[in-house]
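Need the bound structure for adenosine-2'-5'-diphosphate, inputs here:
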Amino acid sequence: MKFLKYRNGDQMPILGLGTWQAAAGEVYHAIREAIDIGYRHIDCAAVYGNEKEIGKALKDAIKEGSVERQDLWITSKLWGSNHGRANVLPALRQTLDDLQLDYIDLYLIHWPVPLKKGVFFPNSLNDFAFDTAPLSDTWAGMEDAVDKKLARHIGVSNFGPKHLERLMHKARITPENNQVEIHAYNQQPDLVSYCQSKGIHLTCYSPLGSMDRPDRLKKDGDPMLLQDKVIANISRTNKVSPAQVLLANLFKNNIAAIPKSVNPRRLKENFESVDVHLLPEQMEHIRQVNKGRRFFDGAYWVVPNGPLTYETLWE
Ligand code: A2P
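Answer from helper R.:
Posting the output first, comments after.
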């Protein structure tokens, strides 16, 4: 396994298991299988609604001796309705309860979008909480989590450079990770250079193009990343799968990836991608397939007369 090193020397496996869309009744087995294959990094979030089932799988795996807690890297995320300093620790404690853990390895602000209590997704201006729960205040709560040793590392998700700049301006602890949508069709080279120049690790979600995202998040004409011709050619030449080409390319660029799977064969295939070799010219060909195409454009945050536009959301 390849690792990304954090400031205190802790090491995060560059490959993790994504759990968004891992359904109830499936995610337990996926986690147990993944741990048996060798996965040691699991990516979770309160909003995925499956942390309890993941917690049971982790507890059983530890109890049965499949893995030790200190060898696992568990990430989770704070939802917008729990922004605001006073809300962070209670939300994290709930996640820790659900996951049956004493601490989280990495806790992230899920989106740079504060919401009023009880709001899941906004419908109008009134549902946002930019005034009462500014991001700097929420970040202070994230720092509290580190002080209380409930989170070993803290970071953000879906933040662009401007959001990060503003956050770092007031931060005591610099964010150590930014989890964003990166894949061959959405390579975000500027964001990658910016984060890497600041020592902020990148983790990418949807590295395989998130084919199982809900229909409401699909648009006519969305390209199929796993069927890309350039990727298919490299996959044939190297005798590996298209998914392995996509993942290996991220790892070679020092970007962590959290492909989701609940299928034992694909879990193993993805795990083995860490050892897949790519030639520099193959990586260059992959660089050229970039379309700047997000599968998740954040439309749910851009409401009529709301505070966010697509520009300010991703800035
Ligand atoms: P499944 O869970 O049945 O394996 P992403 O991580 O980009 O969101 O993609 C997740 C989607 O890709 C899921 O539909 C998952 O299905 C599928 N998937 C995961 N690994 C592979 C693979 N190696 N080859 C093809 N599809 C995969």
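Comments: Residues 85-99 form the longest helix (15 residues). The two ends are 33 Å apart (CA to CA).
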